[in-house]
């Protein structure tokens, strides 16, 4: 592999998962750990791993801030793999992702994500639209994802067997070209967590860059807590709406917002704590998370 490949790992209290993440990376890549003020042994683990540099943000600034700090600390590179510490890159995945950039229109390459048991972890999305928001609100995102193009989250296993473009992909593991990094500039740090990869991919698409799915490049990913943690689910839900407001205009935003509010209200009525937290954040902007817990 002749491309200069760098890796940025964004950490926060990641001592449990970081060692296996680092061990899975191949030799010959520049590795920067961008740490969001961890209080455990994350930084010591990174500093004691040969070939790894640590950039300390000094506060829990979020995922986009970590990506920006990590990329800013890199030397010259052709491609940079942005990865969560709870991911393990399978052998050969990095060269396979690099090969996606043989198409000069590709700015972002996404691997196949698998759960630790080897099952598929759906990670591809269609563009967020008002119709899809209403379908997901009334029927559930996982269900509508299997019906044609009705859902935003693509859950059909057949789609994950073939390469091709997507509107955006889960930000836990993405490879970026140097060109897209230079053209797009920093990721939007105001999203804190969730939505930043959507915003970046949609902005990039408007500049002519594709997000490309490479199914032969496989990464094992533990997955996050957003589905069970009320604070994180509320942040994710609010950021979904923010992305639509930014990229689709005011009238589509109103329809999308109404659909998301209804969907969270239905699930809150059934006793789901995550939905109650999201509904509160949607209806009461003053209760929205502005700064991550330090």
TrEMBL record:
Transmembrane segments: none annotated. InterPro entries: Glyco_trans_2-like, Nucleotide-diphossugar_trans. GO terms for molecular function: transferase activity. Pfam families: Glycos_transf_2 (PF00535). The keyword Transferase applies. Keywords: Transferase. Residues 7-115 form the Glycosyltransferase 2-like domain. Gene3D superfamilies: Spore Coat Polysaccharide Biosynthesis Protein SpsA, Chain A (3.90.550.10). This is GT2 family glycosyltransferase.
